[in-house]
Sequence to fold (430 residues):
Amino acid sequence: MAERRRIPLPRTPRPLKALGRAIGLPVSEVRTYWASESRSIRTGSSALTLGLGATLIAGIVLASAEEELEAIPGLLALIPAAIGMRGAIFGALGSRLATGILTGQFDRRLTLRSYLGRQIEASTVLSVASATQAGLIAWAISAALGLRTVPLLDLVAISLIGGMLSSVVLFVVVVVMARRSASVGFNLDDAGAPIITATGDLVTLPALLAATLVLRVPVAATTIGVVAVVLSLIAVVLGVRRRDPMIRRIVRESLVVLTVAVTIDVLAGVVVEARAEEQFGAAALLVLIPPFIAKCGALGGMLASRLASKLHVGQLEPRTIPGKLAILDFTLIALLAVLTFTGVGLAGWLAAVIVPGVEPLSLVATVGVTLLAGLFALPILSLAAYGSAATSFRFGFDPDNHGIPIVTATMDLTGVLCLVAAITLLQVGV
Fold:
């Protein structure tokens, strides 16, 4: 039998080799790690690509809802928080289930006392509480900034109804993915965050728009708003005092970080994006904002979930300076980031071509903006993911409860700034 001819791998550039030697991580070791994680790369790439399409659909829905947004002041401030909370709560749920699969705690049964059932109970408490909280904070910040808004209880009612409608869909998606992961063997850490984020982007906005129908019956909106506040308080009290240690820990550890996250999301929607739009010289660049922010959160969530699982099973030490295994995961996310942000540029350019009344920029300029912005965002999301996971684990908290909410909130706030910085440096659209 003739000897099989090996196909030589492409040579690594000398500057990259020098960088690897300087940080104590040879490029050959990185390539070996990528080869060993080839399935994770394929799974993550597929999930991110699917999510990109969902994000663009969400952008089209948002563009078509201009009349509803103008008719219901305050709704625009609520949208980033509502979308961010769905990704934070259910991304964290997926991360915990991924850890449960790796540690052998997960089982397919969905009962009140099963591992899966208790995880869903805790996430339900957080969903009710955060939906009510998002309405309260969105109204408060809008009022503080002098922006017009509907009455407080009306906005709370919209937030609760929209949050519960979208949560039902996300519960189904997460449970199906977890069961599939346990039976087939793919790593939920790699697919969970991108698909959950994409589903949240896709279903939350239509759910909020559907929830605005309650305003047609003013008494109903006020009543539901009051019920939402009372129900969320009861849910939180019962959650933090629950006898089950798993549920009690999830609720207690998640409430503070979700409160901070929803506040940041509202600020990002009301202040940062409003100012960013003034700096965009071409309407075609505005199309890039939703998918770019979503992919920053998805990549950071994927990294946070992988790091949390490694901390739980003892593969990773919560050191101040990341160890070799953590840096190898950074390089894996960097590889996916190059593919993802190139895809964001391609898809954004295509969307600008398709949408009437928008003059597209050149394909090279659009992709260049997203790649440079991604280069700025990558170290931020990496440090946020590692810092939240390592710090929470070091102080005895569950990194699955903190990593994804912190990363998504951080990138909601800084993602637009990275995009604006790239546009400014490249002088695109000026």
Q: What stands out?
A: Residues 98 and 147 are 42 Å apart (CA to CA).
